[in-house]
Amino acid sequence: MTDDERRNLIEQVAGAWRPRSATGEVRDHPAWHDLDDDDRRAAAALAAAWRRLEAALDPAGLSSTAKAVLARIRGGG
């Protein structure tokens, strides 16, 4: 795998989107399985940084992950 391919996978995993099963269960991002342990840790660190930035920019102080969780709790997602 090239460095560009690896970085792309890390960015995909760091994003908030996750696939869902037919019954609505949240699944691992498919790219997760293509990363080694170090790259998974890098993706987790990047995700944490992105969520902090999202929360800082949101008027309610919520990240995209927090919004998605609240939407599911409220029955809208």
Task: Quickly describe the structure.
The protein is mostly helical and 77 residues long. It has helices spanning 3-14, 37-57, 64-73.
Question: What does this entry look like structurally?
Answer:
The structure is a single chain. With 77 residues, the chain is mainly α. The chain has one domain (3-73). It contains three helices and no strands. The chain has helices at residues 3-14, 37-57, 64-73. The radius of gyration is 14 Å and the shape is flat. The mean pLDDT is 93.
Order of helices and strands: HHH
Euclidean distance between termini CA atoms: 35 Å
What count of helical segments does DSSP give? 3
Mean pLDDT: 93
Query: How many separate structural domains?
Result: 1
Helix amount? 55-70%
Backbone structural class: mainly alpha
